[in-house]
Design a protein that fits this description.
Length: 169
């Protein structure tokens, strides 16, 4: 199943799409901070504000649950790791690598949610529709519903179940 998913994802360039989307969000946050400070690097305080911008954009533009930004302590430790030239500041490329590492789990969960919503839910819907053929009363009603409408209803149900379980994690 994992090989099938990775093949499917490669064909539709899902990984590149997510990485490009994250890079766009990263560049926007860097430019927002840079415009305020008029420099090509971020201090730790700038970094913290930029991370808040990034997480705000992720929560607005990527599907899935709400993601909280990491603590200042975690950011401080990661900043030291991604400050390749050891000047205590992050330039645009260091910041981009920093954010890619910071958001890797979020990007992975977005891919899984898209797989469930776009592939698994409609497949399950069509299988359950076939399974209801022999059920008296219900089978005839379900068979009259067009496949696309039935798949959409089941997919909506899956999304609602996902949403209702998000708060309990």
């Amino acid at each position: 199943m994992r090989q099938l998913f990775s093949s499917f994802q490669e064909k539709f360039q899902g990984k590149q799409w997510k990485e490009k989307r994250i890079r766009t969000i990263t560049d926007r946050a860097f430019d927002r901070i840079r415009a305020d400070a008029d420099r090509d690097y971020l201090t730790f305080e700038d970094l913290y504000i930029a991370v808040l911008y990034v997480y705000n954009d992720i929560n607005k533009f990527l599907p899935g649950r709400h993601n909280d930004p990491p603590s200042k302590q975690k950011l401080k430790a990661m900043m030291e790791e991604y400050d390749f030239n050891l000047d205590g500041l992050l330039d645009r490329e260091e910041f981009a690598k920093f954010i890619q590492k910071l958001t890797a789990d979020i990007v992975k969960s977005v891919g899984q949610n898209l797989l469930i919503a776009l592939v698994v839910a409609p497949t399950v819907a069509l299988l359950t529709k076939r399974a209801t053929e022999g059920v008296p009363g219900v089978g005839k009603v379900v068979q009259r519903i067009p496949n696309s409408v039935y798949a959409s209803i089941v997919a909506l149900g899956v999304v609602l179940v996902q949403k209702s379980t998000e708060g309990h994690e």
